[in-house]
Each structure stands twice: as C-alpha cells, then as structure tokens.
What we know:
Helix content: under 10%
Number of helices: 1
Amino acid sequence: RALAGGEVEPGARPTSVALQGDGRYLWVGNDDAEGPGGVTVIDTETLKVAARLRTGAGHHELAFTEDDRLAFVTNGEDGTLTVIDVAKLSRVADIKVGSRPSALAFSPLSRAAYVANEGDGTIVAVDSTRLEIVARKKAEPGLRGVRVEAHLERHGRAGGAAVLGLIDGAEAALADPPAHPGGPDDRPRRA
C-alpha cells in the first residue's frame, strides 16, 4: 500500500480513510472482524505509523474538530463514538450513541459531532467540549448518512438526511422537517 512514494501498513481490513485538516496525520479505520477494531494513525511527513488505537468493534467513520484537537471515531458494532486527543494520540472518551453508528460529521459552528445510527434510526449531537450527547432525534432505521454543509451553517443551519429535516448548527439542536413544503427552509437540492 503506497502513500506518497512510501509503503505503510495501514492495519487489518482498512475500510475508511481521513486526512486531518492540517494534513499532519492520515487516519485509517480498521474493521478487523477478528479483533477489537480501531484506527491506524500515519504521520504524513515520515510515512510511519504514529499510533494504533483500539476503539471498538465494527465499521469506523472518522471526523475531526476544526482545530484538529480531537478525532471522532464511530464503532459500528459497539454502538459507540470514541473521542481521541490528537496531540497525545490517546482515547479520552467512549460515548454510547445508538445502534450501529454508520455516519459522522463535525460542525464547527455548534462544535458538535453528529452521528447517524443505522440500527435505531437516530441522529445524535455530541458536544466536543463536554463530550456528551446534547441532542437526539428519531428518524427511521436504515439511516446511513449525515453531513454538515458550510453554506447552510452560515445561516444557522446544517444539512442532514432528508428524513431528518434540519439540524440547527448554532445550538446543536435537531429540528423537525419544515411544516410547509416549499417554504423558506424547504429549498430543493441538486443531486
């Protein structure tokens, strides 16, 4: 597995990859069915493994705070979100978020990580300072996506899956879909 001209061992069953905003570390989610699972952290300058961190079983999605202070890792089988201190490359919290977390996004506006749970159809907002769930919204099982859109955040909104409606990015609140289709918050999106 080559990275910028070098060989790096990314760990068992690498299935997700994310580069920190500052480019210092490349994070690889390892979905090791035989072991506890976790992430491999690769230093992008030396192309050496900086850390291998066990986080939990199942598929892993990755996100970072805007200042790269914290990394968030979902653990699909465990139903948890692991929070990692990037400077120390150590776990600081494991938060039970729901059944089969399948998607993850971070909002700089609310300073919250949003986790979509495929198993129970919930989305949760985890405050990045308190490291606790500050909001939970029920949707439908099978939910597999969540994202934060910067152009909507400037207006105090962050986008989520259509079934969820809107996330109030300024308050880390999870709002119901607009009551009036075609209203000001129900703008069509292009695919």
